[in-house]
């Protein structure tokens, strides 16, 4: 066997440690031929595990896993959503985070000069509570702020401190428990804008409801086209 | 494979697919079908009940996040999961946070030449896999060393110490053994 093939076998078997192990890991991540060799060795050796006695874990272990899933429910759902969106997403060379930074260049002078929104924020009278959500923009100190005012069927979208890149728009989507995502409009960088909320969405919104942001061509997702990649997400909480 | 195990395997593949699509109920199904096998593996590698439980939890949570990495064309789901669990358990040993328990030491000696076990979900074409036969064809020293590395997650250094030979000797035993193993398995692939 060549040196490389030996290394792949040694790594698959788990013989390496320290720097050799780190180097092999890096190699696996960057060198597809090496990774394929490692995979082949793993597949060859895997049947040996049939000789290991099965052992029943305590019921508590599954309970712990379930508890973790619930506390990270959002993460898991966003992963699932990203997977389903990935199938019909736009081709784009840039990573989502990098593109978003390009799309929303920070304008520090605008921070703290949030426009008043009193005109819209008059006391909601419906029995639904006011909901708010923060959507952090990965890799930046920026965020989008969402406030849902049930009395107005309005969603205030605060994008203060963000500016357009002239190439992309970002579209806000409500994630219903079942069925297709519902567009809640396009982010207006640098402003707080009231978006009207369709009745079906208004009825479904509650503490924990999820929003995602996708990157789209100017004007938002074209009819009939696939949605762009999910670049950020948020959940509502009652305020 | 008998029809019952074909059925079990197909159910597991279907559950893995649903898992990759983010269906949470599928994780429980995969857990019910495979946790005893994977816990056995974690326990064998780590030699400690508590560490093995932590490893098992980590295995399924990671699986939940990365289920789309499983490729049904490459390996049977149970073989893939077994490799995954073994790798995660070994990672725990290598990060140095976990000291290998001593419980498994005795079992290790008994297990040295044990035949594969029959078990509902584990019964698989792989039980007849060539690796068992090929491993038997190696000389004693490299065979024991490779088995110990596989079942206990030992490094070259640890193997050399426990078998009381210089590191260089251990490396050449294992490398020659792996080369022979590869030739033998390729003859049957």
TrEMBL record, chain A:
Keywords: Membrane, Transmembrane, Transmembrane helix
Record flagged with keyword Electron transport: no
Pfam families: RskA_C (PF10099)
Anti-sigma K factor RskA C-terminal domain segment(s): 94-223
Key word Membrane present: yes
Domain of life of the native organism: Bacteria
Stretches that traverse the bilayer: 90-111
Full protein name: Anti-sigma factor
Taxonomic lineage of the native organism: Bacteria, Pseudomonadati, Pseudomonadota, Alphaproteobacteria, Sphingomonadales
Automatic annotation (TrEMBL), chain B:
The species this protein was found in: Qipengyuania mesophila
Assigned protein family: Belongs to the sigma-70 factor family. ECF subfamily.
Keywords: Sigma factor, Transcription, Transcription regulation
Name of protein: Sigma-70 family RNA polymerase sigma factor
Listed NCBIfam families: sigma70-ECF
Alphabetical list of InterPro entries matching this protein: RNA_pol_sigma-70-like, RNA_pol_sigma-70_dom, RNA_pol_sigma70_r2, RNA_pol_sigma70_r4_t2, RNA_pol_sigma_r2, RNA_pol_sigma_r3/r4-like, WH-like_DNA-bd_sf
Superkingdom, natural source: Bacteria
Leader sequence residues: none
Domain RNA polymerase sigma factor 70 region 4 type span(s) in chain numbering: 130-181
Domain RNA polymerase sigma-70 region: 31-95
